[in-house]
Amino acid sequence: MNKIELLKKFGKNIKIERIKQGLTQEKCAEILGVSANYFACIENGRQNMSLGKILELSNTLNFKLEKLLDFQS
């Protein structure tokens, strides 16, 4: 797996968890204090997210950290 594939898989995992929670990209971005464009880029695999923001995403939005970081499925 290369970096591009990893970012796309991570973004897909975020999108899956977001949809399960019934949240929009805009709402997630608002809660995290980031722009909706940045959040969309994360979900589309075009932007890195720091480990601190990943942890904040998991804790704040009640996303399962292990699901976000599961790159096998």
Description:
The protein has five helices and no strands. With 73 residues, it is mostly helical. The chain has one domain: Orthogonal Bundle (434 Repressor (Amino-terminal Domain)), CATH 1.10.260.40. Helix 2 crosses helix 3. The chain is globular.
List keywords for this structure.
single chain, 73 residues, mainly alpha, 434 Repressor (Amino-terminal Domain), 68% helix
Into which percent range does the helicity of residues fall?
A: 55-70%
Low-pLDDT residue intervals, each spanning 5 or more residues: none
Listing every helix as H and every strand as E from the N terminus to the C terminus, the arrangement reads HHHHH
| Strand elements, count | 0
Shape: globular
Average per-residue pLDDT, rounded, comes to 93
First and last CA, distance: 12 Å
The domain tally reads 1
Helix/sheet category: mainly alpha
Proportion of residues in extended strands: under 5%
> What is the CATH architecture term?
Orthogonal Bundle
Could you please say which CATH topology applies here? Answer: 434 Repressor (Amino-terminal Domain)
Name of the CATH homologous superfamily:
lambda repressor-like DNA-binding domains
Q: Please identify the top-level CATH class.
A: Mainly Alpha
Number of helices: 5
Oligomer: single chain
Radius of gyration (CA) equals: 11 Å
Largest sheet: none
